[in-house]
Specification:
By secondary structure, the chain is of the alpha/beta class. It is 23% helix and 15% strand. It is built from 26 helices and 34 strands. The strands form ten sheets. Strands 5-4-25-24-23-6-7 form a seven-stranded mixed beta sheet, with helices on one face. Strands 29-33-30-32-31-34 form a six-stranded mixed beta barrel. Strands 11-10-9-21 form a four-stranded parallel beta sheet. Helix 6 crosses helix 14, helix 11 crosses helix 12 and helix 21 runs antiparallel to helix 22. 57% of the residues are buried. Bound molecules: iron/sulfur cluster. Iron/sulfur cluster (SF4) binds next to helix 2 and helix 7.
Length: 993
């Protein structure tokens, strides 16, 4: 027996129990409730503490979201708390040291805040857009957005442009809601569930709970995905599909439904704009726009129908009319018109299953069957539920009809440069089958549905961005036409990321993936200070990682950095922190207050609005300070109007005080939290600030659920009582119905401008054809931009990443428990493809894209379609970060696919001499990071020798020199190749484990 096992053997073989389970544990124990943040689901948790140390985390059975369920990540929060990667004090880059070397010196919070205050005060007084604030997957965008707006900079966004903005934009521009926080599949009543482009992703525990019930109840689950992992593993059928081709499949499905007449014609006529008349007159200034109803009839919403009985145009929703859904007509003055659905039919006339089969790899026969299965579930298997409701026209309905066909989709559709139109196609498919806010279909979550598009507007030009003045508009808005773009007077982008410019007009979540590149290049202008919160933009939150890291280090001719001042706030020693000039230590989620607010991205359920909070269960480690506190402090110091009284004194003493007392308008009664409002805490949703609101949340499992009465739970786009209620709550400014936009006249406005048929703002010549092409008011499929620009014979494989079930982004691959599940990543390759290249299971291989190459290990997998290779996201680390030993396997055999992905398209993408443009969706700016094409080649095998291997033979590539370790103000574990944690050790030994 090896010496290693002798002590263990003694321990387990002496007959003594390790502990007596019936004896109460020693020390002071307590259980506190709060909200998990090991992923973005936000489950309720109970944290068990002994002598002030976290000993155990379990799901909270009283919480509506997870009902007591906890996942591996959630339980492993204990290890995040004790991570040696924690940052413990403010740090400043050592004078004379180079960015990226990681050489820091400690400074006090006073000094850190004073440095920031001085710099930001000067920029605000001179040119506020010189300050840019970009954040990662935080859950405080209502606060960070408010800070940016009050500061007066348009240069603000969170991670959405890099994540799944296409999902939000494609759906919200169609029916006013979207998946995940804003809505989702009603699996309780669904009979067929189709999941597309989703691995183990958003809405983790709730999805698992719902799926298990759905399967037990006999529901059929079909997964369409290039890779069969995560949820797909329990699907009844896996339909493999080539990445970036989902739009073709969805179009073929719509084609089939229209061809066979198997769609919900009544729903389409009355709840969508499918019956509304459009001018079809190429060359006319109003071509492709809806014919206005001149009668002024209130119910028409300004639109017209063609009455199939009288064969005349009538105001939309005219009593007794039978709206035509097909055909072309002429108005009395000869104007050629057609209902929108007719144009959809014509647009998709050639999108046959045979056409889609050649693109997607899914057989035409299967596509036909799938269309019929969907129609059968939605149209034939529904039932009438005795739920009375009143529509916006005042018509009373005694029942709601269920549509038991549910969909869920996410990044697999979104993260392509053709994602917006793909998701438009999905939204139209869901709408034609009548599944929107129907039992068993897609259901909204408050405060959704919103207008199509929502009423929020961004600044439009330099007149809206002025020194010492809040921004005129929200930093991120929802444009309705070219008039809403954010442009300088010469038509160039107003924002550093070029969101809302002609390059990406509907970039409703910004383009954080282009911020560093644009700022480095000074295009559209240089900036002074970039503050990054909780985003690893020097590693897994960047495309083109190697170059981006160099950009952060690059200096101009005068020897100063091209991005002059870089502030990073994070709780952990991520790869990004090495580049900071000023590094601010954030707290862990167990050490702070947080609000998952209805003003932001709440955790609402189908049956009503839900918000929740985190309350600290532990004091902050050492000098860590919540970023929210930093923002409220800075806002007070800078005198931002929403944060100060009329006499300039500070309004809020800290973040909890801000959350309780902030109101969206004086006396509105609407604040960040909707529960226990009113002075005595008796009001829900609206009411005066309640000084005891935090305590009341803490006493009530940290969650507030306002159950809607049953008549307000369905058909909410058109439900009179719900529309009134939503307006009353401030969720919408109006109570008008939200008509589904099968045809998007918003897109047509941009197209008309690009064709020179709309007065006002015009795109630059280099972008005219691009805008006219991509702003098609009806969905169309074509290959992602990068595919079209790549020699596919040289790079035949699509390469994608997925998030593993046990880890969320970069946070968890440092976690001592979770890294035992995934300590490294490999490239998953279909065995037939690998064998063709002579690559055996476990061999090293080169993955080469047009932009670079990465060395990794191959793993055979039958669960990937042959044209795709994939790996887990963000497990590979740079050596020397995250508190891991420099030789930890994450850095040695783990690898990062981002090195192969480019943030800009090839130089000729816009035409010779026309400059570079982001590798993103031309409509929304969604990063096309699933568009990269690669080839794989065998890499040299390690030499056959008994001697220790040379490092290279067992290393992934590229490798980077490790940084200096950051100074710590609290004792931390030595860097170990395997992190260890012994519960209670710190209290026994008086030090950090
Ligand atoms: S699903 Fe996410 S929020 Fe819920 S317990 Fe797991 S890690 Fe925590």
């Amino acid at each position: 027996m090896s010496a290693l096992f002798k002590p263990l053997n003694r321990l387990f073989s002496n007959g003594q129990p390790l502990h007596d389970p019936l004896t109460p544990p020693p020390g002071d124990t307590e259980v506190k409730t709060t909200t998990c943040y090991m992923c973005a689901c936000r489950c309720g948790i109970k944290v068990h503490l002994r002598d002030g140390e976290v000993r155990f985390i379990e799901g909270n059975p009283n919480h509506p979201l997870n009902q007591g369920v906890i996942c591996a990540k959630g339980s492993a929060g204990i290890m995040k708390q004790v991570s040696p990667a924690r940052l413990t004090q403010p740090l400043r880059r050592k004078p004379g040291s180079e960015r990226g070397a990681g050489e820091f010196e400690p400074i006090s919070w006073d000094e850190a805040l004073q440095t920031l205050e001085d710099r930001l005060r000067h920029l605000r007084a001179t040119d506020p857009k010189q300050f840019a604030l970009f954040t990662g997957r935080d859950q405080m965008q209502a606060l960070t957005g408010l800070f940016a707006r009050q500061y007066g900079t348009p240069n603000y966004a969170a991670h959405g442009g890099f994540c799944s903005v296409n999902m939000a934009a494609g759906m919200i521009y169609t029916f006013g809601g979207s998946f995940w926080e804003f809505g989702g599949p009603d699996l309780e009543r669904a009979k067929l569930f189709v999941m597309i482009g989703t691995a183990e992703d958003h809405h983790s525990n709730p999805m698992k709970i719902a799926l298990s019930k759905f399967k037990r109840a006999g529901g059929r689950f079909i997964s369409i995905n290039p890779v069969r992992t995560g949820y797909s593993a329990i699907a009844d059928e896996w339909i493999p599909i080539r990445p970036g081709t989902d739009g073709a499949l969805l179009q073929a499905l719509v084609h089939e439904l229209l061809r066979t007449g198997r769609f919900d014609a009544d729903f389409t006529a009355h709840y969508t704009n499918g019956a509304q008349l459009l001018r079809v007159q190429p060359g006319h200034l109003q071509d492709g726009l809806f014919i206005p109803d001149a009668s002024g009839a209130e119910q028409s919403q300004g639109r017209m129908w063609w009455d199939a009985v009288t064969q005349r145009p009538v105001p939309a929703w005219a009593e007794g009319a039978q709206p035509a859904l097909s055909g072309r007509y002429r108005l009395a003055d000869g104007t050629p018109v057609a209902p929108a659905l007719q144009l959809l039919r014509e647009q998709l006339a050639d999108s046959t299953p045979e056409w889609a089969a050649g693109i997607t790899g899914v057989s035409a026969e299967r596509i036909r069957q799938l269309a019929q299965e969907m129609a059968q579930a939605a149209l034939d298997q529904g039932e009438d539920l005795p739920i009375a409701w009143t529509d916006w026209l005042g018509r009373e309905h005694a029942k709601v009809r269920s549509k038991p066909l549910a969909f869920h989709a996410m990044r697999g559709l979104a993260a392509h440069s053709n994602g917006f139109q793909t998701i438009r196609a999905l939204s139209i498919l869901m709408s034609l089958l009548g599944t929107i806010d129907a039992p068993g279909g897609f259901r909204h979550k408050a405060p959704y549905p919103k207008d199509v598009p929502p009423e929020v507007r961004n600044p439009r030009g330099p007149q809206d961005v002025r020194p010492d003045t809040p921004l005129n508009g929200a930093p991120l808005g929802w444009p309705t036409s070219p008039d809403d773009l954010a442009l300088m007077d010469d038509g160039s982008p107003l924002r550093i990321d070029k969101a809302f410019s002609w390059e990406h007009p509907l970039a409703v979540h910004g383009l954080m993936h282009n911020v560093i590149t644009n700022a480095w290049r000074g295009d559209p202008y240089p900036i002074d200070t970039l503050l990054i919160f909780m985003s690893n933009m020097a590693w897994n939150s960047a495309m083109n990682t190697v170059d981006v890291r160099q950009m952060l280090r690059d200096k101009g001719e005068d020897g100063s950095y091209r991005i002059p001042f870089l502030v990073v706030c994070d709780a952990f020693h991520s790869e990004m922190t090495a580049f900071a000039d000023l590094l601010l230590p954030d707290t862990s989620y167990l050490e702070r207050h947080d609000a998952m607010s209805l003003l932001d991205r709440p955790i609402s359920e189908f049956d009503g609005p839900v918000d929740s909070v985190r309350v600290p269960v532990l004091p902050p480690l050492a000098q860590a300070r919540p970023f929210q506190e930093v923002l409220v402090e800075l806002a007070g110091r800078l005198g931002l109007p929403a944060f100060v009284n009329a006499d300039g004194s500070r309004k809020y003493k800290n973040y909890p005080d801000f959350i309780v007392n902030y109101e969206t308008a004086p006396g509105s009664g609407i604040g960040f939290l909707s529960g226990w409002r009113g002075k005595d805490g008796t009001q829900s949703l609206k009411g005066e600030p309640n000084p005891k609101q935090w305590e009341m949340y803490a006493q009530n499992d940290c969650v507030h659920f306002h159950h809607l009465p049953e008549p307000l739970r369905y058909m909410r786009n058109w439900n009179r009582d719900y529309l009134d209620f939503a307006q009353e709550q401030g969720w919408r400014a109006r109570n008008t119905p939200i008509i589904i936009a099968l045809y998007s006249d918003v897109l047509q406005q941009f197209r008309l401008a690009a064709r020179g048929q709309r007065p006002g703002r015009q795109p630059p010549e280099a972008l005219r054809a691009r805008v006219a092409h991509h702003f098609d008011p009806l969905p169309f499929w074509e290959p992602p931009l990068e595919h079209a620009a790549t020699d596919l014979s040289r790079y035949p494989l699509a390469a994608v990443t997925q998030r593993p079930m046990a880890m969320y982004h970069a946070w968890d691959s440092q976690n001592a428990w979770l890294r035992q599940i995934h300590g490294h990543n490999r490239l998953y390759v279909n065995p037939a493809v690998a064998a063709q290249q002579g690559i055996a299971d476990g061999d090293w291989l080169w993955i080469t894209s047009p932009w670079g190459r990465v060395r990794a290990r191959c793993q055979y997998s039958e669960a990937v379609e042959p044209g795709t290779v994939w790996t887990w996201n963000a497990i590979g680390k740079a050596s020397g970060f995250w508190g891991l030993h420099p030789h930890a396997e994450e850095a040695q055999t783990g690898f990062l696919l981002n090195h192969l992905i480019r943030e800009e398209l090839p130089a000729n993408a816009l035409g010779a001499g026309q400059g570079l443009i982001s590798n993103s969706d031309p409509v929304t700016g969604q990063a096309g990071w699933y568009d990269v094409r690669v080839r794989i080649d065998h890499a040299e095998a390690p030499p056959e020798t008994d001697e220790p291997l040379p490092a290279f033979a067992e290393q992934s590539w590229p490798q980077f020199a490790p940084p200096a370790a950051p100074p710590q103000s609290a004792p931390h574990a030595p860097q170990l190749s395997v992190l260890r944690y012994f519960a209670g050790r710190s209290s026994r030994q008086g030090k950090q484990p």
